[in-house]
Structures are given as structure tokens and as C-alpha cells.
Design goal:
Elements lengths: L6 H13 L5 H8 L7 H13 L3 E6 L2 E6 L3 H14 L4 H11 L2 H17 L17
Antiparallel strand pairs: 1-2
Helix pairs in contact: 2-3
Length: about 140
């Protein structure tokens, strides 16, 4: 399970996920500097930490690295939700509470996701009578 990204790690990863291409420290730095004052070495350290944690891979290009996300933001979010759910002593109650917090649009997205998962991995059909199912009473 991934631990949640820190604020600056998230800001860096957001750019990598949005751009969906290999990036340099300089590109991330220039974009971050539109919002905050930040040093090149800080961005370089954050990207190195993300590499050490397995969030990005890097390839040498000249005297610099190009960084690429290892997984998607959706996969990251799903892992965080799964971990939070797994930590509950009552997973069903946690889901009910979570669903209760959702907007109608989010619930519709959830319904769409359930339909996709059910379509892609349907549950096995119940056994026909006399095919190993319980005997009629």
C-alpha cells in the first residue's frame, strides 16, 4: 500500500500524471514556480525521493534525468481507498458511510464502475438443479 503523498510530492506527481510524458526537473520547476517560490534542488530532491519510493522511473538524458510515472493517479487513489477500507473493523459500515458522503454524480460514477467490473468479470451462474446445487426440499 502506498503511503499518502506529501503536499509537494503530490504537486510534482500531479504534473507528471497530467502531462503523461517523461519530464525533467527543470520543466516541473518552471511550472511549480508559477504558484510558489521553490528551488531547483528542492524539486530535484522530491523527484529523487519519488524515484526511491517507486512512484517514478528515470532515464538518463544527457546530464539530466527524465522522469515518468510508474502508475496512474487512478491506481494511486484506488490503493489509498482500498487501504482505508481494509483498516476498518467493519468494512461494510465503512462503505455505507463512504457512499453516504458521495454526491449524486459520484454515486452515478460508482454505479458505472460496478457495471464495468461486473461486465468484465461476471459472477458464475448459480448451478442448475441437479448439477451440484442443494437438493430441493
Amino acid at each position: 500500500m502506498p503511503r499518502p503523498l506529501g503536499e509537494l510530492e503530490d504537486a510534482v506527481m500531479t504534473r507528471i500524471w497530467q502531462w503523461n510524458r517523461p519530464v525533467t526537473v527543470r520543466e516541473v520547476l518552471e511550472d511549480l514556480q508559477q504558484e510558489r517560490s521553490i528551488a531547483y534542488t528542492t524539486v530535484m530532491t522530491v523527484l529523487d525521493n519519488l524515484h526511491q519510493k517507486g512512484w517514478v522511473r528515470r532515464e538518463v538524458e544527457g546530464r539530466a534525468y527524465r522522469y515518468t510515472a510508474v502508475s496512474t493517479r487512478a491506481a494511486y487513489s484506488a490503493a489509498l481507498m482500498n487501504e482505508a477500507w481494509a483498516q476498518s473493523d467493519n468494512p461494510a459500515a465503512a462503505l455505507v458511510a463512504f457512499f453516504g458522503m458521495m454526491s449524486p454524480e459520484q454515486r452515478e460514477s460508482l454505479n458505472d464502475a460496478i457495471r464495468i467490473v461486473q461486465r468484465d468479470s461476471p459472477l458464475p451462474a448459480p448451478p442448475e438443479e441437479g448439477e451440484g446445487g442443494p437438493a430441493p426440499s
